[in-house]
Amino acid sequence: MRKVTLSKGAALWEAGDAARNIAVLEKGTLGVKMADAVVGVAAARTVLGESAIFSVVGEEVKRTASLIALQDDVQITEYPAIMVKQAIDGKKDQVAPLILSTLVSGACRNLLISVSAQRGRAVLEKPLKALMQGLIEDGREVKVVGTWEDFMTTFRFLYHLRDYTESLRAEIGGAAQVEASVKASEAVRELFKGSHDVQGYLEELMKEEAEKDKWLVKASDAWSFKPGDKV
To answer: Quick one: which of 76, 103, 115, 178 has the fewest CB in 10 Å?
Structure first.
């Protein structure tokens, strides 16, 4: 484990690097950069590079995007992926539940934006809403991870679900990112009327999404990156 502090424009990882470590963003904001464009933003208490978990079971994984500090004093804790398994085996892990909850929240954001863009459509709204509600209700119970095998089964499902819902969001989400986030935020209360716990969880997610949108607009429209050497 190591602590990393990045200055604005410095890269934590570059696209194409071997994925062997995961990281927790403790403070600040990172941009997800593909080619010459910033396509996403990561905020504090987010797990980064979770695909490295697959390296523990012998699968070769490469980074698909670069992570670039969008401000000074971005603080990160980085772990070899094998430490997650060791911690689970030792019954002392705090990172594994955070990995799973990060995947749950990512999938729920994508599903909410997709549902809000396709209100009333048969074989879309109800199934996606039910999946979202189930994820939230079960995901909040992931406080303690059992065995490594249990973790990997859940991790694989959530990892691939998060990736699928990202594709779904891109295909049927409709509006540009900021507009889609606003529309999704407005739809929460109507979609989950009476489900106060689910509604509250989604409202918090969409507040975070709104903050990310602000950073993404800055990074896309006004930021001139001069990435430094990798840490």
So the answer is: 178
Domains of the chain with CATH codes: 1-80 (2.60.120.10), 90-221 (no CATH)
Q: Where does the pLDDT of residue 154 fall: very low under 50, low under 70, confident under 90, or very high at 90 and above?
A: very high
User: Using one digit for the tens of pLDDT, what is the confidence trace for 123-135?
Assistant: 899 999 999 999 9
* Count of C-beta atoms within a 10 Å radius of residue 114: 24
Q: How high is the mean pLDDT of the chain?
A: 87
Q: What is the pLDDT of residues 91-119, one digit of tens each?
A: 877 788 889 989 999 999 999 999 998 88
For 8-58, the three-class secondary structure string (H helix, E strand, C coil) is CCCEEECCCCECCEEEEEEECCEEEEECCEEEEEECCCEEECHHHHHHHCC
**Cα–Cα nearest to 63, from 77, 52, 79, 55:** 52
Token representation of residue 71: 């401000």
List the structure tokens of 214: 């602000």
